[in-house]
């Protein structure tokens, strides 16, 4: 009986070490992925990057096409170095796309401080929620269904607002999205900690998208509520 207990304990310890390794690699790749994002954003702002600005719907659909193309490629190559290359290419593309809202923010007299506040707020929310998921080791997988439904609703509302251009709806979408992607941070980090995700490239992609969207919607709220024109 004793050897069996010993073996069970050894397996549990090995699984725990594997989960910690995935989490550590995820954080390392996540930190690295911020570099091409920043480079892409700076290049986009300096170049005045636009993506079919004359047609918001076509721009949105093209963005989704390119983004899902990258994500499909990352998923297909997640067990090789090419997965890392595609992920970093994707984060550069997302940095370029981020430059659009940064250009709008910098049009306000307090634009730089709003961007800094959104970045700081995103960091604080991420570290707090990631800490909760890591320390408590609680399984937040039960949130998955609710978060997915919320994501579909937010996407549909965003598409609708392309046509209606209602400021109050944009504000409501961002408010819900901040809560939604905060929930996704708990969900995704919890999956890594509890062994639901064992590939650090896929894990990094999921957490990166959580952070990216959280930042964008926080900045959108700040611009709507505290933006100051000259």
Oligomeric state as shown: single chain
Instruction: Tell me roughly what share of residues is in helical segments.
Output: over 70%
Arithmetic mean of pLDDT: 90
| Rg calc | 19 Å
Structural class by helix and strand composition: mainly alpha
The number of distinct β-strands equals 0
Total helix count? 7
Distance between the termini: 77 Å
Q: Biggest β-sheet, characterized?
A: none
Total number of distinct structural domains: 1
From N to C, what is the helix and strand string? HHHHHHH
- Report the β-strand fraction as a percent range: under 5%
User: Which stretches of 5+ consecutive residues score pLDDT under 50?
Assistant: none
Shape, per Cα inertia axes: globular
């Amino acid at each position: 009986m004793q050897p069996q207990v010993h073996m069970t304990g050894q397996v549990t310890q090995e699984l725990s070490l594997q989960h910690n390794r995935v989490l550590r690699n995820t954080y390392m790749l996540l930190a690295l992925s911020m570099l091409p994002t920043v480079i892409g954003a700076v290049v986009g702002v300096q170049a005045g990057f636009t993506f079919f600005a004359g047609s918001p719907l076509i721009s949105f659909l093209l963005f989704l096409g390119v983004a899902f193309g990258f994500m499909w490629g990352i998923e297909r190559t997640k067990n090789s170095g090419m997965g890392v290359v595609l992920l970093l290419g994707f984060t550069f593309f997302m940095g370029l796309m981020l430059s659009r809202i940064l250009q709008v923010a910098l049009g306000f007299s307090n634009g730089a401080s709003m961007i800094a506040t959104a970045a700081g707020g995103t960091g604080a929310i991420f570290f707090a929620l990631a800490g909760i998921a890591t320390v408590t080791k609680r399984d937040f997988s039960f949130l998955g269904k609710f978060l997915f439904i919320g994501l579909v609703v937010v996407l549909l509302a965003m598409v609708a607002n392309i046509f209606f251009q209602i400021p109050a709806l944009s504000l409501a979408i961002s408010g819900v999205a901040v809560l939604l992607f905060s929930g996704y941070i708990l969900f995704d980090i919890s999956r890594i900690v509890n062994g639901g995700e064992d590939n650090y490239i896929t894990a990094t992609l999921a957490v990166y998208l959580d952070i990216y969207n959280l930042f964008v919607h926080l900045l959108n709220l700040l611009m709507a509520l505290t933006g100051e024109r000259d």
